Amino acid sequence: MEIESVTETPDVEYAERAQVEERYYSLLARARKELVAYAAERAGSEAGSAAGSKSGASLKHNFVRLPKIDLPHFNGSYEYWLEFRDTFLSLIHNSDCIDDINKFHYLRASLKGQASEIIKNIDFKGDNYEMASDLLCDRYNNNRLLVNNHVQALFDVEPVNKESATSLRRLIDTMNKNIRALKSLKEPTEHWDTLIIFMMSRKLDPTTSRHWEEYRNALSSYPTLAQFSTFIKQN
Q1: 26, burial (CB in 10 Å: exposed 0-12, middle 13-18, buried 19+)
Q2: How far apart are CA 166 and CA 178, in angstroms?
Q3: Phi, psi (degrees; rounded to nearest 5) at 228
Q4: Please, which residues have CB within 8 angstroms of residue 155's CB and are 6 or more apart in sequence?
Q5: 182, containing H or E segment
Q6: Cα–Cα distance between 72 and 76 in angstroms, integer?
Q7: Mapping DSSP to helix (H, G, I), strand (E, B) and coil, where does residue 46 land?
Q8: Residue 111: DSSP 8-state
Q9: Residue 134 region, left (φ>0) first, then alpha (ψ -120 to 50), else beta?
Q10: What are 13-21's contacts with CB under 8 Å, separation 24+?
Q11: Contact (CB, 8 A) for 168 and 208
Q12: How far is CA 37 from CA 51, 221, 227, in A?
């Protein structure tokens, strides 16, 4: 059997080997370059993630939970109408983020007793919210009745029978609340100091009343309502 041998010249063999080696080292260099780029990208990603986590932790640390604001309630008493109206307008009625059907829902949920009867028979749909709101305002935006109610509330302030810081503060708070309401109704309360002081001083317990008279007599002019309030709060 005759074996045929194929021979190549050394130059051809060296050329082919050089091409293979060149391709090998080229691919190796490319692979190393890709690995370096990948390692750098991963390191940057981990650093960014760590920074993000730190930032998130900082945000969580700095986050302050705001107190919940409860919806006001109104039972039909004129004494509380202005407070309810202004609060509801601010939180619900004037909000662009709440649609009419939800405003109607909040309105119905806020009304109790006689006030709820006014809108009870109105169909519950968004188009009827303005109607319900207008009916309620037409009923209670009665300045004459509101003024009478808040003036009467001043006469009806509960007397303080025994010296008590809590009772005295309640007297001042009730007085200020009704005066603010009357002022918002355009009553000239800035000229009522003498009258209001006379009314409220008659509600004081004997000890506080005596101290007030001593304080008042030491003044060079008639006391203002602000002076009266400050004196009572400090006792």
Answers
A1: exposed
A2: 19
A3: -60, -45
A4: 199
A5: helix 165-184
A6: 13
A7: helix
A8: B
A9: alpha
A10: none
A11: yes
A12: 21, 87, 77
- Distance, in Å, from the CA atom of 208 to the CA atom of 206, rounded to the nearest integer, reads 6
> Structure tokens of 18?
């050089």
- Distance (Å, rounded) from C-alpha 85 to C-alpha 104? 14
pLDDT digits (tens, 9 = 90+) for 150-201: 999 999 999 999 989 999 999 999 999 999 999 999 999 999 999 999 999 9
pLDDT in tens, 22-72: 665 565 556 555 655 555 555 555 545 544 554 444 434 444 554 566 788
Quick one: tokens of 131?
Answer: 């109607």
Chain mean pLDDT for the chain: 81
Q: Which two tokens stand for residue 161?
A: 């029978």
Phi-psi region of 104 (alpha: psi -120 to 50; beta: other; left: phi over 0): alpha
